[in-house]
């Protein structure tokens, strides 16, 4: 599969354009496909197209915009060419799990469609002060930059609300998994007015050309902190707003009145190891009451034996594929080694299929016990299948330790008593807390999701996921400004003593 950029209503490439080759993490050699690597000039052309399309698209009544976006997505999915197999091949998540990415786009388009009219509505206030009209206007041209770990979902979370609220967009997916998202959204873009949605591919250079262009009105970014700093600096130069959906170091706090047993252990394994642990809102640390620690570690090992099978992600029944790259695997293996050197106990869990391709970035999932909180595996986002299990003595202590990291994305609290779990949740410094579940199991389209601290700012999902893309414009006509009004001083009083002329 070889794909072009999609600019101003057309696939766009020029002879001799550089190409980004996508090599599968399943064996480290198979070329799954390629995308055109957009030059700075092509990025500028995409922004120009989005700028030209903006006035007309913003004028389309919101209901009609919603219908156009929903219809475009439904038509592309009806063709049936989109499949999780492609995502599995390009970034390694199990194909069945990846199938859900396209279904998500359709579901999210329905949800946003139901919200868009309210978000874009004008509000009139008529009272003794006068007439205030508040208009929700599109932000304008949106630069959207996304990562590889859920390539279609993470792009859909930006494209759908932004377009429905009247913005136009240039999207740059990750060079590590560009194929499924570029193919799907180029087909969607082809069904919309030219220039409304444009796609360019590339690495940091293309990303930088996009976010540094003064015609961009807002940047919506999902990714890691180093990139966020570079993008934040570019946004600061022209004082443009950003939405930053960054990494997490999510704590799962299991209270001593949790429903201990097989199901709890399986839910924790799912929350931590989905997509090989490469999910922003995966469980990244587990806090367990000391009295339950050893027995629960044992439960986790047994649960992993039942549900965690590492293998070729294109095969049915596999629950964990390879990690994204050789670099990622090396970084994670170093983290495991340093955990052992620091006195941690490393426990291999799950099963791994025989005869996997040798060049694949396979990792045996692991638990690590006995680490101090200042070890990197606990302090930082590991973004891979290595999970620290930490014993605590009091709930206050667990909360303090959960809050002691720089990230603040999500968390989970596990207890039979939902009110007690909510009380603990209120004390966690994060943007989202799940009760008795975690990761994808806790996501709700109606629940805004986002972080604080190093996890970023702004929200996706819920009504807030749309309102990020509109700006308020207040148009006020005070009664005092009506002709002849004597209600208030809306002009200088006539001077009691006439001024002397000079
Ligand atoms: P990354 O920051 O390396 O890359 C993200 C995107 O930024 C890619 O498209 C990349 O090409 C682009 N980019 C890189 N340098 C750039 C620059 N200088 N200017 C503009 N764009 C540039 O992140 P990644 O490795 O792709 O993704 C993993 C990270 O994303 C993890 O930290 C994960 O937790 C986070 N994440 C967060 C969420 C969320 O919703 N909060 C969701 C998924 C992933």
Notable features of this structure?
502 residues; binds nicotinamide-adenine-dinucleotide; aldehyde dehydrogenase (NAD+) activity; alpha/beta; Ald_DH_C; Aldehyde Dehydrogenase, Chain A, domain 2
How helical, in percent, are the residues? 25-40%
- Spell out which ligands are present: nicotinamide-adenine-dinucleotide
The CATH topology name of the largest domain reads Aldehyde Dehydrogenase, Chain A, domain 1
CATH class category name of the largest domain: Alpha Beta
| CATH homology-level superfamily of the largest domain | Aldehyde Dehydrogenase, Chain A, domain 1
Strand tally is 23
| Gyration radius from CA atoms, angstroms | 26 Å
- Main beta-sheet strand count, sense and barrel state: 7 strands, mixed
List the uncertain runs.
none
In what range is the share of β-strand residues? 15-25%
> Please, what is the average pLDDT?
96
Q: What CATH architecture label of the largest domain applies? A: 3-Layer(aba) Sandwich
Q: How many helix segments?
A: 15
Q: How many separate domains make up the residues?
A: 2
Structural class: alpha/beta
What general outline do the C-alpha atoms trace? globular
> What is the distance, rounded to the nearest whole angstrom, between the alpha carbons of the first and last residues?
82 Å
* Strand arrangement, major sheet: 16-18-19-14-13-20-21
Descriptive overview:
This protein is an alpha/beta fold and 502 residues long. It folds into two domains: 2-246 and 457-471, Aldehyde Dehydrogenase, Chain A, domain 1; 250-447, Aldehyde Dehydrogenase, Chain A, domain 2. Helix content is 38%, strand content 21%. The chain contains 15 helices and 23 strands. It has helices at residues 40-59, 62-79, 84-91, 95-120, 151-164, 179-190, 204-211, 225-237, 262-273, 290-307, 326-341, 376-379, 395-402, 418-426, 462-467, and strands at 2-3, 5-7, 10-12, 19-23, 31-36, 123-127, 130-138, 141-145, 168-172, 197-199, 218-222, 242-245, 250-254, 283-289, 309-310, 345-348, 351-352, 366-369, 386-392, 410-414, 432-435, 456-457, 470-478. It has a seven-stranded mixed beta sheet, with helices on both faces. Strands 10-9-8-11-12-22 form a six-stranded mixed beta sheet, sandwiched between helices. A hairpin with a 2-residue loop joins strand 2 (5-7) and strand 3. Helix 1 (40-59) crosses helix 7 and helix 3 (84-91) packs across helix 4. The longest helix has 26 residues, at 95-120. 50% of the residues are buried. The structure holds nicotinamide-adenine-dinucleotide (NAD). Nicotinamide-adenine-dinucleotide binds at residues 145-149, 154, 172, 174-175, 203-204, 207-208, 211, 222-224, 227, 230-231, 245-248, 280, 381, 383, 409.
């Amino acid at each position: 599969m070889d794909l072009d950029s999609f600019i101003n209503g057309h696939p766009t490439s020029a002879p001799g354009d550089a190409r980004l080759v996508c090599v599968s993490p399943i064996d480290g050699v198979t070329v799954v496909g390629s995308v055109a690597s957009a030059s700075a000039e092509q990025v500028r052309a995409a922004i120009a197209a989005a700028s030209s399309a903006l006035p007309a698209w913003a004028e389309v009544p919101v209901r009609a915009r919603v219908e156009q976006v929903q219809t475009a997505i439904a038509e592309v999915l009806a063709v049936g060419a989109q499949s999780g197999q492609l995502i599995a091949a390009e970034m390694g998540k199990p194909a069945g799990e990846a199938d859900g990415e396209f279904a998500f786009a359709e579901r999210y388009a329905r949800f946003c469609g139901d919200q868009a009219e309210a978000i874009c509505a004008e509000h009139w206030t008529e009272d003794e002060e006068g007439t205030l009209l508040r208009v929700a206007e599109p932000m304008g041209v949106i630069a959207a930059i996304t990562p590889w770990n859920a390539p279609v979902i993470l792009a859909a979370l930006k494209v759908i609300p932004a377009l429905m609220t009247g913005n136009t967009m240039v999207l740059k997916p990750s060079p590590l998994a560009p194929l499924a998202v570029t193919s799907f959204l180029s087909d969607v873009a082809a069904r919309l007015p030219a220039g409304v949605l444009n796609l360019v591919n590339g690495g940091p250079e293309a990303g930088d050309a996009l976010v540094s262009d003064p015609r961009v009105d807002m940047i919506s970014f999902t990714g890691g902190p180093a990139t966020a700093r570079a993008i934040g600096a570019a946004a600061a130069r022209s004082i443009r707003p950003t939405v930053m959906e960054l990494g997490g170091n999510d704590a799962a706090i299991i209270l001593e009145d949790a429903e201990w047993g097989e199901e709890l252990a399986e839910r924790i394994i799912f929350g931590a190891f989905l997509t090989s642990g490469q999910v922003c809102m995966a469980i990244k640390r587990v806090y367990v009451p000391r009295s339950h620690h050893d027995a629960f570690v044992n439960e986790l090992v047994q649960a992993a034996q039942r549900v965690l099978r590492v293998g070729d992600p294109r095969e049915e029944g596999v629950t964990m594929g390879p990690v994204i790259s050789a670099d990622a695997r090396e970084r994670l293996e170093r983290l495991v080694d340093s955990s052992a050197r620091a006195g941690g106990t490393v426990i291999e869990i799950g099963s791994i299929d025989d005869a996997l391709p040798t060049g694949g970035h396979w990792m045996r999932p692991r638990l690590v016990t006995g680490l101090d909180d200042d070890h990197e595996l606990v302090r930082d986002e590991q973004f891979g299948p290595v999970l620290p299990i930490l014993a605590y003595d009091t709930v206050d202590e667990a909360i303090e330790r959960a809050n002691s990291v720089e990230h603040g994305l999500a968390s989970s609290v596990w207890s039979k008593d939902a009110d007690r779990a909510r009380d603990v949740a209120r004390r966690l410094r994060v943007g989202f807390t799940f009760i008795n579940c975690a990761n994808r199991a806790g996501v709700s389209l109606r629940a805004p999701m986002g972080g604080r601290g190093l996890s970023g700012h702004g929200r996706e999902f819920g009504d807030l996921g749309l309102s990020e893309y509109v700006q308020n414009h207040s148009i006020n006509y005070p009664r005092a400004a009506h002709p002849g009004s004597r209600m208030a001083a809306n002009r200088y009083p006539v001077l009691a003593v006439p001024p002397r002329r000079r």
